[in-house]
Specification:
Helix content is 18%, strand content 33%. The chain contains seven helices and 30 strands. The strands form five sheets. A six-stranded mixed beta barrel has the order 5-6-12-7-11-10. Helix 2 (71-101) packs antiparallel against helix 3 (105-119). The two termini are 27 Å apart. The relative contact order is 0.19. Mean pLDDT is 79; it is low at 1-40, 61-65 and 103-131.
Length: 482
């Protein structure tokens, strides 16, 4: 099923404003002003009909640009951090396969030991890099926490007092002693068992003399959260969920900026979606705004589609049912078109991909990426090329051009569902003078890796995750707080 406005010329027009002797992308104007506005902006939420609506905002994890740091250095940090996340996701996928596919207890123990060793990687430069994510506000134990929305995380966690080693955050740390409804989760509980299964953690999370269930979530980029599993009241636009299980982190480091932690929206027993099944039926959706910091989007919990503002009908494709999938949302990518031209690649024959809110740039297996890149270069041949930048290897010098014809991009999923990428998600502006503008896609190392559709290609789309119906829906929508 095709959706969206058909473009006979199979090209979108990107307008550029002349600045000095070059060009400037309007999307990038006022970005520093936007960051300042975000810090002063209170994230809103409300209940409407059968849905709970939370405002989403683009979050720059390190706040204002570091003094003396160029735009290129800032962008390089964002892309390097994104590459580290992608590598971490690939490792996590492999760990789930190893841990859950083995029938030998000895092999399982070895796999768990490997996963645990990964969890003890010390903090590296990845924790100091900048990244771009989306944040929302939740109520927890009577306080408020601003958290990064992450569809690849098994568990919601926030930083807690007393904090042994924590990243800076703008809001006060969550204080368990100030919440009468707070309690730790004991080791001999189903929630503790579920955490170990979901996160691939070893049984040593609960020692012989240990009463409380501890957790460790860490990744190859050096970021981590460690603490104790607990439960308290969760408030979402007035909807109160008693006994919500979360991670109370007392040692946390990584590119989380001024946020309080993460909102885990993955497919696991302890994710926010699973724990609110009675309230929201296992359905949530988001619409991610454009890059500017002062723009808003929305996270909708529940299946009431009347609150959406989609401009095209919602079309659904099936989630891939995979017992080894961990918390990830898999779907089958069966093809892509560029400028109306179908991309030919053998990689689409096994096109299982992850759709992820926390990854920025879409990463494709080499066989698919090379075919996409070749077709894009063929259609974009009139523009001079520029050197690659970080993980982006296909770049152009658009200085002097007041308008550029950008070929349309579409993903094709199971059921012939076509999803058109917003024009702002095709090119990534590295330099403010447009002397280095890159195709916003990157290649993975091997065809054995798993492709990931990042948030840069999901802007101005309503993406619906229906875990009960095992399907994912898409529709065009100009994203704003509804």
């Amino acid at each position: 099923m095709a959706w969206g406005a058909s473009i006979a010329a199979a090209a979108l027009l990107l307008l550029l404003a002349a600045v000095g002797g070059g060009v400037h992308c309007r999307e990038l104007e006022g970005s520093r002003r936007g960051r300042a506005l975000q810090r002063r902006h209170h994230l809103r939420s409300r209940a409407e009909g059968g849905a709970t609506v939370l405002e989403l905002r683009r979050h720059h994890s390190s706040g204002a640009a570091a003094p003396g740091r160029s735009r290129e250095e800032e962008t390089g940090g964002v892309l390097s951090s994104d590459a580290a996340r992608v590598e971490s996701l690939q490792q996590r996928i492999e760990n789930y396969r190893l841990i859950r596919s083995t029938s030998s207890s000895e092999a399982a123990a070895a796999a768990v030991e490997m996963a645990a060793s990964k969890a003890q990687v010390p903090v590296t430069s990845g924790a100091k890099l900048r990244t771009l994510n989306y944040v929302a506000a939740i109520g927890l134990g009577g306080g408020e926490a601003t958290v990064i929305v992450d569809t690849a995380s098994e568990l919601t966690w926030v930083q807690c007092k007393p904090c042994e080693s924590c990243h800076d955050q703008q809001e006060p740390l969550f204080d368990p002693s100030s919440s009468p409804s707070y309690a730790t989760v004991p080791c001999n509980s189903s929630s503790c068992d579920a955490l170990q299964v979901a996160a691939g953690m070893s049984a040593t999370a609960c020692g012989a003399d240990q009463a409380d269930c501890s957790y460790t979530l860490s990744y190859r980029d050096g970021s981590y959260s460690r603490g104790v599993l607990a439960h308290d009241k969760l408030s979402l636009a007035g909807e109160v969920i008693d006994g919500f299980v979360f991670g109370c982190g007392t040692s946390n480091q990584g590119p989380f900026g001024g946020t309080s932690g993460l909102m885990g929206l993955g497919r696991s027993q302890l994710s926010l979606i699973s724990q609110t099944m009675d309230q929201f039926g296992g359905v949530f959706s988001y619409c991610l705004p454009l890059k500017d910091s002062d723009s808003s989007g929305s996270l909708v919990l529940g299946d009431d589609s009347s609150v959406y503002r989609n401009s095209t009908p919602i079309v659904y494709t099936s989630m891939v049912s995979d017992p080894l999938q961990g918390p990830f949302y898999f779907l089958n990518l069966t093809g892509m078109t560029i400028g109306g031209q179908e991309v030919e690649s053998s990689g689409f024959s096994d096109g299982k991909v992850i759709i992820d809110s926390g990854t920025v740039i879409t990463s494709l297996v080499p066989s698919v990426y090379n075919a996409v890149r070749a077709e894009f270069l063929n259609q974009f041949a009139e523009y001079p090329q520029a050197p690659g930048f970080s993980i982006l290897d296909t770049c152009f010098n658009l200085t002097g051009f007041k308008e550029v014809q950008v070929p349309s991009f579409k993903f094709v999923f199971d059921g012939s569902v076509e999803v058109e990428v917003d024009s702002s998600g095709v090119l990534y502006f590295v330099s403010s003078d447009s002397s280095q503008v890159c195709l916003a896609l990157t290649s993975l190392k091997s065809d054995y890796d798993t492709s990931i559709i990042g948030n840069y290609q999901q802007k101005n789309l309503r993406v619906i995750f229906d875990t009960s119906g095992s399907q994912i829906g898409f529709a065009q929508e100009t994203c704003d707080y509804l």
